[in-house]
Amino acid sequence: MIVCSRCSKENQDHYKFCLGCGAELPRESSKPRSFTAPTPPGGTPSPARTTNAPQAQAGRAEAVASAPQLEQLEIDPTPVEAVRSKPVAVEDPLPPELAPLSDETSPCPHCGSDVPENFRFCHVCGHDLDAEAFGEAAGAALGDGPAERVSAPAVAEAPGAAVARARLVLIQPDGSEGEAFPLSGDPTLIGRSTGGIFANDAYLSPEHAEFRFESDQLVVKDMESLNGVYIRIEPDVPIELFDGSIFRVGQEILQFEGPVAPDSADDGTQHMGSPHQGYLGRISLVIGRDTTGNSHPIPPHGIHLGRERGDVVFHGDGYVSGLHCRVHSEVGHVFLTDVGSSNGTFVRVSNESYVPQGTFVLMGQQLFRAEY
Amino acid sequence: MEQARNYVCTECASAVPSGHKFCGACGAGVPPEAQTLETRFFGALQMPGKARLIVVRGDEAMGEGLSYLLQATEHVAGREADQIPFPSDNWLSPKHANFLYRGEKLVVRDEGSLNGVYIRVRGAAPIQIGDHFMCGQQLFRVDATPKDTSGPEADQTYFYSSPRRPSAFRVTQVLEGGMDGIVCCAHEQSVQVGREDCDINFPGDVYMSPRHARIEMSGESLELVDENSQNGTYVRIRGERELSHGDYLFLGRNLLRVEVTA
After folding, report:
1. How far is residue B169's CA from residue A294's CA, in Å, rounded to a whole number?
2. CA distance B162 to B138
3. Average pLDDT over all residues of chain A
4. Maximal CA-CA distance, chain B
5. Residues A282, B185: C-beta atoms closer than 8 Å
6. Sign of the dihedral defined by the CA atoms of residues B77, B81, B84, B86, in that order
7. Which helix (H) or strand (E) holds A153?
């Protein structure tokens, strides 16, 4: 309950404006949680966090056995565990209305934006503010404290090592960066069998995905994995949906089903039913193999999806933004557009896809950023 | 002076008590119409124990307000039926339903039609998985929750599904043409249908009441409860169903009221 400071009316927690006088309400409660690679429903079947140092190390040994180019990672003696520091915001720009409130700000050394003091990363450009601070204060201090995390990529790029053309940077549950996995081979196979940070993710297939370069573009190929590879789509850029297309919003896996042609009985009798308002298809919640839960038909004018607003709402999913994405029709085709969500909308790769520099990639339980 | 109270023999002018076939005085025959005094109805519509169907909302070609007297033993309704025809409603099978008398009782029998016969629920009615029901312009089916198919693969990869909530059953909207529309899995023990503020909402359906009906699970069984909706909630009959005065039926787009004279 939020009590309006102007007219004293009591408003529900998710209201942004007072129902009584229209005054803007404090926004604390409407802030979505930052994206993690969330624990899937039904719990975690096995330890899968890369923050588990001994296991990560063991996995690394396997990785080395099968892929010698990973050796450089061995150089990093740092237990991956120490990374957890202050809670941080996601490093992609938050929409202004969702940005956490903070009184004190300081300018980002990279882009000059005013960044709240408690931020670990610049909310505009993603610049790592701690690294800056540590670098300036005490370069020698690298090796303990939060700055350890930075050392991993630093080592990976160290002169003399076989330089990987690209790497996958793990995004940790608190939004900070974790280990970086170099994509040294061309192609590089990723999966539970390749060990390393992937060894303990029970939602990855043994051979999950393959990354390769096509000229200077990174390409990912889904190796017919069970759970697929998801790529974050650009906000406000429509992506076409086809019958069977799967996308992810927060923790929800959604499937688009194209329109079905009506059939009639041999004697000419039509199937009766609710008025068909020219639906473009349906959006269904995937709850199992070939099993869907709630579904919603898409009328010709399209639908919006969000946690609080829209035609289809996900009240229980804190990773979904208030208004997250929309599914709409243009010139007879159906498109999915992210409308500026905090955590993004991810589309499951159908066979292969380009992975532009900086793209977020979801595989298994883990979120990565592709850098090259 | 007063009128003779009984039949008077035309031969001998003697009074013949009612029920006699011959005159006791002269032996002349009494004509049959004089033997049994039968009071007839002005019209067949008055016949007791006979029902009629009134088309409340009907086939464009046949018009509304039409009534069909059910005075034979069987009365077939359908798109190509002779007795109760609805020629322009393609939701009706050629031979859709049969209204017939079983003893004193009027029953309706679904003649294996594609779309079935729906009867208005009085208060609440038991309903089963697979049954269809109607609210306003909307048609629904009650479905079972599919088996959990999110277990691990042989290679120990786990299936990543959306967060699942336990659900006892689900309600699926059936669209014109036979496709499925909205699917709503029951959160608790019920799914409510209406124009607004329900689990499944149809703000654009002017025949739907704000809170129209709900499917509720009590113990192992499901019940369809009409929430005093203005236009009623209809459930598809299985096979045959006894009718009584005041029942409403949907056959395709046609709404019929049953009137049974006592």
Report:
1. 11
2. 28
3. 75
4. 112
5. no
6. positive
7. helix A148-156
* Residue A15: per-residue pLDDT: 78
User: What is the rounded CA–CA span in Å between residue B108 and residue B247?
Assistant: 11
- How many Å apart are CA B255 and CA B250, to the nearest integer? 5
Cβ A204–B157 below 8 Å, yes or no?
yes
Binary contact (A294, B90; C-beta < 8 A): no
Q: List Cα–Cα distances, A40 to A46, A250, A253, A299, in angstroms.
A: 12, 11, 11, 31
Q: Any idea which residue has 């008398």 for tokens?
A: B101
Which of A130, A53, A49 is closest to A91 using CA atoms? A130
Test the A interface: residue of B79, B118, B179 with most A CBs within 10 Å: B179
B137 touches chain A (CB under 8 A): yes
**A333-338 and A325-330 beta bridge pairing:** antiparallel
Contact criterion met (CB below 8 Å) for A346 and A233: yes
> Torsion angle, CA of B239/B243/B246/B248, rounded to 10 degrees?
10
- Asked if A269 lies within 8 A of B146 by C-beta distance, the reply is no
Q: How far apart are CA B169 and CA B158, in angstroms?
A: 25
Closest CA to A250 of A6, A93, A99, A41: A41
Provide the chain B residues 76-105 that lie in CB contact (below 8 A) with chain A: 79, 90-94
Do A171 and A178 touch, CB atoms closer than 8 A?
A: yes
Residue with structure tokens 């009959």? B237
ipTM of model: 0.82
- Which of the residues in chain B have pLDDT under 50? none
A77 Cβ contact list (under 8 Å, min separation 6): none
Length, in residues, of chain A? 372
Tell me how many residue pairs between chain A and chain B have CB atoms under 8 A apart.
164
Name residue B191's beta-bridge partners.
Answer: B215
pLDDT in tens, B192-251: 999 999 999 999 999 999 999 999 998 889 999 999 999 999 999 999 999 999 999 999
Does the bond joining A187 to the residue before it have cis omega, within 30 degrees of 0? yes
Helix (H) or strand (E) holding A65: helix A53-66
Distance CA A34, CA A36 (A): 6
Taking Cα atoms as reference points, which of B212, B260, B256 lies closest to residue B54? B256
Residue A202: list chain B partners with CB under 8 A: 152, 156-158
Crossing angle of the two packed helices A148-156 and A129-137, in degrees rounded to 10: 90
Q: Which residues on chain A are in Cβ contact (under 8 Å) with B149? A: 288-291
What phi, psi does B188 have (nearest 5°)?
A: -100, -110
Enumerate the β-bridge partners of residue B221. Answer: B218
Are A269 and B114 a contacting pair at CB < 8 A? Answer: yes
Cα(A325)–Cα(A251) distance, integer angstroms: 14
d(CA B85, CA B68): 10
d(CA A309, CA A326): 11
Nearest Cβ partner of B173 from A205, A268, A274? A274
Count of alpha carbons within 13 Å of B249, Cβ hemisphere only? 28
